[in-house]
Amino acid sequence: MPKINLLPQERAEKAKARKGWMGSAFLAIVYVAILGATFVYFKGAESAAQADLDAQVAANQQLQSEISTLQPYAELAAKYETGSQMIRTALANDVAWGRLLGDFGRMISDKRVWMESLSVGVASPAAETPTVFGSVSMTGRGFDYPDVSSWLLTLDSQDWDSVTGSWAGTVTQDDSDEELVTWNLTTSITDQALSDRIETLIPEVPE
Known about the structure:
By secondary structure, the protein is an alpha+beta fold. The chain contains four helices and four strands; from the N terminus they run ααββαββα. It has helices at residues 9-90, 97-108, 145-155, 197-201, and strands at 113-122, 132-142, 163-173, 181-190. The longest helix is centred in the N-terminal third of the chain and has 82 residues, at 9-90. The radius of gyration is 48 Å and the shape is rod-shaped. The relative contact order is 0.10.
């Protein structure tokens, strides 16, 4: 059965307008509520982020304060490193002459040769000979050629690693005494002849 609207036309239009206004008002309220919720959410996130930032700034300030208190130790460490490097540079080619010359005297004592002069020279290692730190040249006399040969072999012995690459410059009959020979030998100083003064002069600092 069809419905018949007995209300006047104006009342019907007002009722329709009222419904439209209420719907718009409801949508506006919902929209404002969503905006409010969104604002509260982001405001809370902003507050949390600000709190984290403040905490990090405070931590950084604390670390900076601690670093400032450690500055004297950093300066002391820098002085230690500078001094240590100076010692390493000064003693880079430091030969333990007492030990090396003592070995010469000990090794030659049982040979039939004797030394009359000795000269030494120290130099930084060359690229082609990284373990050679200088040379020793010596002259002397012996009773015979085999005696000089024995001394030369002793210089190049595997039991004596402080010198290496020994060679004879001259071995000739002695003009003043034909029963003797004079000789001129040269040998190279190796890194095994270096002193340990770097280790003893640079104290070990516990970490």
